[in-house]
Amino acid sequence: IETFKQNLSEQELLSSSLSNSQQDHQLSIERLTNEHQQIISDLKNEFSKQKSLSESEYFTIIHEKNEEIDNLHEQLLTQNSQIDSHQDTIEHLRKDLHDYEIKYSEQNAQLDQLLDQQKHISESMIRLKNVLNVDANDHDELLEQLLHKMEQSQLI
Fold first, then answer.
1. From which residue to which does any coiled coil extend (predicted)?
2. Distance between CA atoms of residues 9 and 4, nearest Å
């Protein structure tokens, strides 16, 4: 159970870390998207003012920035998939932990029942020893002395 709790805790930390990383990447994507839009605006302004960039250079830069954004989106999708996988693992570990806790409780209840039975048997042996006025340490010895007492009473 402790191992499962430890694994669950580790998975939760990993999931939290991945969520933070996902948020960081989301912010990076937003930042790059804003930068990309600003670059496009700047390039449009520069292109219209100076006509220094050729149209193909302009489109090449736009294409490169689009690829950067696409790569970041792909990374974000991969991280989302990893987070989902870790959350599934966490849920599985929680279920396993719950199952083991139930099994542990059932076994404790069985153990308590067996201890009660043992206590009842011990009390019965003590009463029988007192009634027979014998000194026995275990069940077999008590039976021997009981048989011996019965033989003696039959002889009388």
1. 62-117
2. 8
